[in-house]
């Protein structure tokens, strides 16, 4: 498959998998209002995934649809980064994952506004408003928990220890990103500054150099993705072509 | 005998207020906020409901997520419910019933010229 298809799938998979993860909170949020907030974010992300899948399906042709791309590909065919497939953990872990990813998506989509592929640029432009809100919402939660009680700070710190090693992959270009000249490494300066600013307010230290996990963007996933896909794809696998 | 007692929204006993008392049944101690939404520019803000939030910023965002998901609004106000002074339901008789038999306060006895439409 061509690099543009792989890259479009990468963007779609990132959004779909995080949307699916967040949707696991539906009915289980810590309070009603935040249950609605996190599932709203889910719906935004799944909407972004649909736009990218529709484009990828058009590029692939041969009967591919947004549904076949979401529901009938196997684990190794997913190009999402490792960060988005990590389990929800507690509320701190969920929102820290959201903060890391939304801040990345914010700078990425802003960068993609100038992408020569107009369809990708258009989806990025439409999604940027949503992502700006996700970033604002998750930033405030990081500050609220980090600068909150002993327990909230402890939980946020534990989430940081759990998730930090999955952030390095975001800025290491995969083959398709290199082919297309998508300079993800250039986003790291802005991203790091954003993380530092928010962490300063949250009384949290940015971790030093640690080993960073990689592989998700080229289909080598952590054990968690298979379980997630099993749930996500269950209906289409069990009742092929079913509609409702 | 106490003639005047100032009631606040959250002070009115739960069984009489019709709204959940702050932080009791909700399972956490975040204060209650009242939400006002302007549906489009030029119209006034209208009371949309209430919700719990830890601070004003969170209340705005919760209101955005709870009350404007289907394009219901272009502007949101929130105010903590305890800052709203409310009438006591027990005083409804003396406050509102005296107006019941004073229909002459409605301007319905004037003959309007046809040129004055939609008055």
Q: Helix coverage percent of residues of chain A?
A: 55-70%
What is Rg of chain A?
17 Å
CATH class of the domain at 29-105 in chain B: Alpha Beta
Kindly report the average pLDDT value of chain B.
80
Number of helices of chain B: 3
Proportion of β residues of chain A?
Answer: under 5%
Span from first to last CA of chain B? 46 Å
Number of domains of chain A: 1
Let me know the number of strands of chain B.
3
- Could you name the CATH homologous superfamily of the domain at 29-105 in chain B? Phenylacetic acid degradation B
Total strands of chain A: 0
Helical residues, percent of chain B: 10-25%
Which structural category do the helix and sheet elements of chain B fall into? Answer: alpha+beta
The interface involving the most residues is between: A-B, 12 and 15 residues
Largest sheet of chain A: none
Describe this structure in words.
The complex is a heterodimer of chains A (244) and B (119). Chain A has 244 residues and is mainly alpha-helical. Chain A has one domain: Up-down Bundle (Ferritin). Helices cover 66% and strands 0% of the residues of chain A. The longest helix of chain A is centred in the first third of the chain and has 29 residues, at 32-60. Helix content of chain B is 18%, strand content 18%. Chain B has 3 helices and 3 strands, in the order H-E-E-H-E-H. Chain B has a domain at 29-105: Roll (Ubiquitin-like (UB roll)). Chain B is of the alpha+beta class and 119 residues long. Chain B has a 3-stranded antiparallel beta sheet with strand order 2-1-3, with helices on one face. The interface between A and B is medium-sized, with 12 and 15 residues.
What is the topology?
The complex is a heterodimer of chains A (244) and B (119).
Chain A: H1 3-23, H2 32-60, H3 66-71, H4 82-85, H5 91-112, H6 118-146, H7 150-163, H8 175-180, H9 188-201, H10 223-238
Helix pairs in contact in A: 1-2, 2-6, 5-6, 5-7, 5-9, 6-7
Chain B: H1 14-17, E1 32-38, E2 45-52, H2 56-67, E3 75-80, H3 92-96
Antiparallel strand pairs in B: 1-2, 1-3
């Amino acid at each position: 498959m061509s690099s543009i298809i792989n890259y479009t799938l990468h963007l779609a998979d990132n959004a779909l998998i995080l949307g699916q993860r967040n949707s696991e909170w539906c009915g289980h949020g810590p309070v009603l209002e935040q249950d609605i907030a996190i599932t709203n974010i889910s719906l935004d992300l799944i909407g972004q995934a649909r736009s990218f899948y529709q484009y990828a399906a058009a590029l692939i042709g041969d009967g591919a649809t947004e549904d076949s791309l979401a529901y009938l590909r196997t684990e190794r065919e997913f190009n999402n980064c490792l960060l988005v497939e990590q389990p929800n953990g507690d509320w701190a872990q969920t929102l820290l994952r959201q903060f890391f990813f939304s801040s990345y998506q914010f700078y990425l989509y802003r960068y993609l506004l100038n992408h020569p592929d107009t369809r990708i640029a258009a989806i990025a432009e439409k999604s940027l408003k949503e992502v700006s809100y996700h970033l604002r919402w998750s930033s405030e939660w990081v500050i609220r928990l980090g600068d909150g009680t002993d327990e909230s700070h402890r939980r946020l710190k534990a989430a940081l220890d759990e998730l930090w090693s999955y952030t390095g992959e975001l800025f290491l270009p995969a083959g398709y990103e290199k082919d297309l000249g998508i300079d993800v490494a250039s986003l790291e300066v802005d991203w790091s500054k954003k993380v530092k600013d928010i962490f300063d307010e949250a009384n949290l230290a940015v971790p030093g150099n640690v080993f960073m996990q990689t592989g998700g963007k080229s289909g080598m996933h952590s054990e968690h993705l298979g379980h997630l896909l099993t749930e996500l794809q269950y209906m289409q696998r069990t009742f092929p072509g079913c509609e409702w | 005998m106490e003639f005047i007692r100032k009631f606040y929204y959250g002070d009115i006993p739960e069984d009489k207020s019709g709204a959940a008392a702050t932080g009791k049944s909700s399972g956490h101690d975040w204060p209650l906020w009242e939400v006002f939404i302007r549906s489009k520019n030029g119209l006034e803000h209208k009371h949309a409901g209430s919700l719990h939030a830890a601070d004003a910023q969170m209340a705005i965002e919760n209101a955005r997520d709870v009350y404007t998901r289907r394009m219901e609004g272009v502007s949101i106000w929130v105010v903590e419910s305890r800052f709203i002074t409310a009438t006591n339901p027990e005083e409804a008789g003396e406050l509102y019933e005296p107006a019941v038999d004073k229909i002459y306060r409605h301007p319905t006895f004037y003959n309007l010229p046809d040129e004055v439409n939609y008055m």
